[in-house]
Design a protein that fits this description.
Elements: E1 21-26, E2 32-38, E3 47-54, E4 63-68, E5 72-76, E6 83-91, E7 103-106
Length: 111
Amino acid sequence: MSSVVLFSLSVCASALPKPPTSLVLSEVSATSVKLTWNSGNIDPVLSYVVQYKPKFAPDSKYEEIFDITDTEYTVRGLNAHTVYEFRVSAMNGVGRSMASSPVDVTTGELG
């Protein structure tokens, strides 16, 4: 008599992910900016959250863009000639990492 044993192996994260590293801003225009970063994690990351806000606006809160699955993203709909602060967090099955170190950029002029 022979028997077949079936099993499945699932990999689950047991800790929060580490913050993304090496955040770089490029392709800056009057209304958009491209972000690229390194995951900073050996274990799988489900998605990333990009956070941004006008740097010098009083009481400004971070806008958040969720469900980013790549390590680059272009933020659109920004205001021209404005200093923005950007940062990125990683998400896994346990939760959300601390944010990356923030990076500032000034959007260009319209025209």
